[in-house]
Write a structure and sequence with these properties.
A: 323 residues; Rossmann fold; seven-stranded mixed sheet; B: Rossmann fold; four-stranded antiparallel sheet; 21% strand; globular; binds adenosine-5'-triphosphate; binds magnesium ion; nucleotide-binding (chain A)
Chain lengths: 323, 358
């Protein structure tokens, strides 16, 4: 990896103030995605995947604060840029597919006009051509009878159809970076395949870089070039896909792979990962936030680890990794 | 396996022959939605002035669906995005009024009570739902605690310490840390919100729990906790489930039986393991083949070709899968295949015996 990455996130730290204390949601998160590649972010619920995406997109909850780090989109640091600078690239250069599509769509406008708006605003499509192009995009995301469906309101569409409308909106401007937060969780496997192929085609054709947030390790294995594993606001492993699955080095990564129901014969056979995420409001959070759940814990695990580089071959944040 | 050719249509003959009357009996259920924007207000007025009937095109979201769920039984519902799963469960849980057909819960006909009135019905507590979109079931102004407490207060009359204890127990059971109970939905991650939605429905201990994609937002570890909880409540309380999911692996592990839906119709049903191990309907086959697998990186590469049929005013004589089906003959275009019984299975395909014969 010698080329400048399409998106580089370095040492990103985020906290939220709540009535009952400060939530240390992210600490020194680093990763990079080169042009045309797909980076998957996986990890337990609450580990900070969406917060990472929101911070990069500049749409954190007002109670959230970025305490450190940078996010370079080409030459622009999104975290230091002015609101105008961010507004100029958002939707055009960098786009996001949200985890909850129905709330991200405007409930009182037809889906066709919402897509057309984006085409006019971000993709320089003439006003006259936009409705037709919106119908094409609906067809691309696998919606049948797209000309008639363009006139539907979000409440008239199924969960997965709303999700696909969101995807059409995000892809409309052919962004150079796409952040897809669980883009296919509401979709059946055949529709999921259509969507993932569509994203893959854009990656190939226009060199779009994709950050793909998912719980589905099997899908990540199939689609991503590289995988970042998060746990309690830390990146604990970052490796090329094949290598991560063949030789996971962090004990948490190994547990995560083992918990996949894929081949299990019965429910009883499935193991959940022992313990749970530490309370992120604690002021005495240990340097390794997995230590308290870790079967391989040693005394030196309480010492601070050096920050992980953003562009590694295979990085593991562990003092006693699997070999 | 022997194939009998008699067509089955009524609700009671589907699934295993039940000794007791089933908990839920759904017969020939239909739900159609008018397609908006097709005529516009002016067009409608003009038609009305001409005196002709206003025929609007309709989405056939649920079309003649029959099945039963026994006490303590878990039934899975799978199918393509937009095929009518959420509409079906919304009609069953009486959030929507059906366009036709019956819904019987414990022998009582529910479809006669309008959706509006069912909210106050005594049977309301016997049937609970976990929504596909956790945002739908969780009021943004409620903390996680208030969200879980609300149905317990309304439907079970709990108050004070008993209420608190019950809410905390439900949170624990669903793997939701108690520290999160004071948070509002926007302060929770997607999976944390989903657990609030599940805890809320489970706490009431309904006879029938309908779950619309409850585990989609959950990581594998939390998912295991939820699935094992459902299994335990089933043995302890005899709870029944209708479990809508896109995750075939989960359906296979959790469900006794599975219903496969395609464009508003059930195309295959039977014991979950058998259906996924040896699909008899070509759509089920396609679904199974498209599932990615961690242990088989080559899996999930097969694509359905062709254009799906529109759910808007579909031709009643053409198989809904025609056009995408690798089989697709003239017969499929001339006659809609009915569900037929093959051993423990029901399959709606003219060519199902070719597959059973293999
Ligand atoms: N506005 C907020 N106030 C307080 N805490 C918050 C807020 N938003 C998020 N958090 C917390 O930050 C942590 C990370 O949340 P995030 O949404 O990034 O999780 P996630 O990895 O996307 O999980 P999931 O897979 O469930 O979507 C969680 O513990 C969450 O409760
Ligand atoms: N209120 C409504 N008005 C008009 N059409 C509707 C309405 N609700 C649903 N539909 C249509 O009914 C069909 C079935 O939708 P439904 O939400 O039941 O699908 P689903 O199987 O749950 O899909 P998904 O897996 O994507 O959630 C779709 O074509 C949808 O557009
Ligand atoms: Mg998230
Ligand atoms: Mg649905």
């Amino acid at each position: 990896m010698t080329a400048v990455p399409a998106l580089l996130v370095e040492n990103l730290s985020v906290e939220f103030r709540t009535r009952s204390g400060t939530v240390q949601a992210l600490e020194r998160v680093s990763f990079a995605v080169p042009k045309g590649e797909t980076l998957a972010i996986v990890g337990e619920s609450g580990s900070g995947k969406s917060v990472t995406a929101y911070a990069v997109m500049g749409i954190l909850d007002p109670a959230g604060k970025i305490t450190a780090g940078r996010a370079m989109l080409g030459g622009l640091d999104l975290l230091a840029a002015t609101a105008d600078q961010v507004a100029a690239v958002r939707g055009r250069e960098i786009a996001m597919i949200f985890q909850n599509p129905r709330t991200a769509l405007n409930p009182i406008r037809t889906v066709g006009s919402q897509i057309a708006d984006v085409l006019i605003r971000h993709a320089n499509v003439p006003r006259r051509e936009a409705p037709g192009r919106a119908v094409d995009l609906l067809r691309d995301v696998g919606i049948t009878d797209p000309a008639r469906r363009a006139k539907a309101y979000p409440f008239e569409m199924s969960g997965g159809m709303c999700q696909r409308v969101m995807i059409a909106i995000a892809l409309a401007a052919k962004p150079s970076v796409l952040i897809a937060d669980e883009p296919t969780t509401g979709l059946d496997v055949t529709t999921q395949a259509v969507i993932m192929d569509l994203i893959g085609d854009l990656a190939r054709d226009i060199g779009m870089a994709t950050i793909f947030i998912t719980h589905d390790l099997a899908l990540a294995a199939q689609r991503a070039d590289r995988i970042v594993v998060m746990h309690a606001g830390h990146v604990i492993e970052n490796a090329p896909t094949a290598e991560l699955f063949a030789r996971p080095r962090h004990p948490y990564t190994a547990e995560l792979i083992a918990a996949t129901p894929d081949a299990a014969a019965s429910l009883a056979e499935l193991a959940s990962i022992p313990g749970s995420l530490p309370d992120l409001r604690r002021i005495d959070l240990p340097p390794c936030r997995y230590a308290e759940r870790c079967p391989r814990r040693r005394v030196d695990c309480d010492a601070e680890l050096p920050p992980a580089p953003a562009i590694p071959e295979h990085v593991v944040a562990c003092r006693n990794p699997l070999s | 396996m022997t194939g009998t050719l008699d067509t089955m249509s009524s609700a009671t003959v589907h699934g295993a022959p039940p000794a007791d009357p089933p908990l839920l009996d759904v017969g020939e259920l239909r739900k159609r939605f008018p397609v908006s924007g097709t005529l516009g207000l002016i067009g409608r007025l003009r038609r009305r002035m001409k005196g002709g009937p206003i025929h609007l095109p309709h989405v056939y979201a649920v079309d003649d669906v029959s099945f039963t769920i026994g006490k303590g039984e878990t039934v899975g519902l799978v199918g393509e995005s937009g095929c009518g799963k959420s509409t079906l469960v919304r009609v069953l849980t009486r959030l929507l009024d059906p366009s036709g057909g019956i819904v019987r819960l414990g022998g009582r006909e529910l479809s006669l009570t309008p959706a509006r009135r069912f909210a106050k019905d005594p049977d309301r507590a016997r049937i609970q739902m976990v929504f596909q979109d956790a945002g739908e079931s969780v009021n943004p102004r409620f903390t996680a605690f208030a969200a879980i407490a609300d149905p317990l207060r309304r439907l079970r009359g709990l108050r004070g310490a008993a209420l608190t204890a019950k809410v905390e127990k439900a949170a624990d059971q669903c793997g939701l840390p108690r520290a999160l109970l004071s948070r509002f939905p926007h302060q929770l991650s997607g999976g944390q919100r989903a657990r609030v939605g599940i805890a809320r429905a489970v706490a009431v201990e309904p006879a029938l729990l309908v779950l619309d994609e409850p585990t989609a937002a959950l990581d594998v570890s939390v998912q295991v906790v939820i699935l094992q909880l459902l299994e335990r409540l089933k043995t302890e309380l005899g709870m029944s489930y209708l479990f809508v999911s896109h995750d075939l692996g989960v359906v296979r592990l959790l469900c006794d039986r599975v219903l496969v839906m395609y464009l508003g119709k059930i195309v295959e049903s039977g014991p979950a393991r058998a259906v996924f191990a040896n699909p008899l309907h070509p759509y089920t086959r396609a679904l199974v083949d498209a599932a990615p697998s961690l242990h088989d990186r080559g899996a999930g590469r097969i694509r359905l070709q062709g254009e799906p049929r529109s759910p808007i005013d579909p031709d009643p004589n053409v198989c809904r899968f025609y056009g995408r089906c690798p089989k697709g003959t003239d017969l499929c275009r001339a006659e809609m295949p009915a569900l037929r019984r093959f051993g423990e299975r029901d399959v709606a395909c003219h060519f199902a015996e070719e597959i059973t014969a293999r």
